[in-house]
Amino acid sequence: AQSVTQLDSQVPVFEEAPVELRCNYSSSVSVYLFWYVQYPNQGLQLLLKYLSGSTLVESINGFEAEFNKSQTSFHLRKPSVHISDTAEYFCAVSDRVTGGGNKLTFGTGTQLKVEL
Amino acid sequence: DVKVTQSSRYLVKRTGEKVFLECVQDMDHENMFWYRQDPGLGLRLIYFSYDVKMKEKGDIPEGYSVSREKKERFSLILESASTNQTSMYLCASSPEDLTDTQYFGPGTRLTVL
User: Fold this and answer.
1) Which of A37, A69, A71, B20 is the most buried (most CB within 10 A)?
2) If you average pLDDT over every residue of chain A, what do you get?
3) B55, pLDDT greater than 60
4) Over the stretch A5-21, which tens digit does the pLDDT of each residue have?
5) Are A56 and A66 in contact (CB under 8 A)?
């Protein structure tokens, strides 16, 4: 079974500072990797995803993540955070299910708190 | 615009009650999912469905059942609610392909007294 590890449950950072949210996965097959973000009192929404090709993927709001196969990692980074980036971030891996369909396995989440 | 709606944002029920949580998507997606979200545990998959009348157990199906009679609607049922089922419940849907994004509803915060 696939699994996802997010070692940091909380990451406090000052505004305009860089941040890295760590994600490691375990999988014996090719993977598709996702980062989702959950703003306060909202559902999750996709931030970015890696499917194939370039190992560096970017989101529209300045986040980027790099797929590293040898280290089985998919860390999320932003060079300069804004107060509006305060949210919970979830890493996930996609998996085909025997019998049909596919599902995501999520990490436990990292709460990013941006302070002034 | 993509939309997944859940019947209630907040729900309070008593122990032993039968509880229905409803989810509707308007994107003609094949897959639908029910998760529960608890602090420190992330999202855990309860059940999912990849087609009408089809269902698969997720990681924590005990105490829950589901129904999918129509493609756009996926219901989560707590046959006899217990206090340890107090949680945030999130519904999601996605197209068939493994690479596709899941779209989430706003969540239902269920409290069982």
Assistant:
1) A37
2) 90
3) yes
4) 999 999 999 999 999 99
5) yes
Q: Return all residues near A70 (Cβ < 8 A) that are at least 6 apart.
A: none
pLDDT confidence of residue B69: 94
Establish, for the pair of chains A and B, how many residue pairs have beta carbons separated by less than 8 Å.
72
Binary contact (B102, A97; C-beta < 8 A): no
For residue A89, give how far its alpha carbon lies from the nearest alpha carbon of chain B (Å).
10
Angle, alpha carbons A63-B48-A30 (nearest 5°): 50
pLDDT beyond 80 at A97: no
Q: CB of A3 within 8 Å of any CB in chain B?
A: no
* Contacts B51 to A, Cβ<8 Å: 100-101
A108–B51 CB contact, under 8 Å: no
- Please give the structure tokens belonging to residue A74: 């998919």
Q: In angstroms, rounded to a whole number, what is the distance separating the alpha carbons of residues A30 and A15?
A: 36
Count CB neighbours of A109 within 10 A. 25
The tens digit of pLDDT for each residue in B1-47 reads 769 999 999 999 999 999 999 999 999 999 999 999 999 899 999 99
Closest residue of B to A95, CA-based? B98
- Closest residue in B to A94 (Cα) is B98
Q: List, in sequence order, every residue forming a beta bridge with B22; answer none if it has no partner.
A: B75
